[in-house]
Amino acid sequence: MTTIRSCSPADISKLNLCNLDPLTENYARKFYFDYLAKWPTMFIVAENQKGQIVAYVMGKVEEDPDYLKILGDKYLPWHGHVTALTVAPQYRQMGLAKQLTAQLDRACEQENAWFMDLFVRVSNKTAISMYKKMGYSVYRRVVSYYSDDPTGKGTSEDAFDMRKSLPRDKHRRYVRENGENNRINPEDLYHG
Fold it and tell me: What is the pLDDT of residue 21?
């Protein structure tokens, strides 16, 4: 049996089982501790009976600064962001990713976020399919978002910016269908 719970500082040193996956972004320890300090309700782990962390999700809520509202459609309002979601290989296909993201969604709803977003490699078909089943759609394609290409076919890889409306976005203003062909460059993502 696996327990879903909030991350604790001691858990940061137990993420290795999940972080060995080549599709998982790895960060410096300080990054994990900063997330835990800033968004404690949005750093959630799955722990097995042996006390091992077998999956986790890190998220946050954010928005562009108010002075950028003049950008119109490009302005990013208050929203939840999935920074990292990973499940150890031997614990996949057990629904842990869905449980973790559902708990993160609830935390972002409590913060009155408009939508959830995340970035995923275009080559990660399994993750894209999973996110679509969870209600996400591709909002746009970010060209050369990742500076490496694990397939060995190039020096960089594109990402899909995927989004899912939360209850506050009743009219689905911040999502779109079929955004795979809406291409932007990474420098066009952030304005603040």
Answer: 78
Tell me the two tokens of residue 192. 């603040």
C-alpha triplet 134, 145, 173: angle, nearest 5° = 45
Mean pLDDT of 112-117: 94
Q: Which tens digit of pLDDT belongs to each residue from 42-51?
A: 999 999 999 9
Share of the chain above pLDDT 70, in %: 92
The residues, any chain, with a CB within 8 Å of residue 13's CB and separated by 6 or more, are none
Place of tokens 């782990």: 45
Instruction: Read off the amino acid at residue 7.
Output: C
* pTM of the entire predicted model: 0.88
Task: Please report the DSSP string for 111-162 in residue order.
Answer: TT-SEEEEEEETT-HHHHHHHHHTT-EEEEEEEEEES--TTSSSS-EEEEEE
- What CA–CA distance (Å, rounded) separates 3 from 72? 42
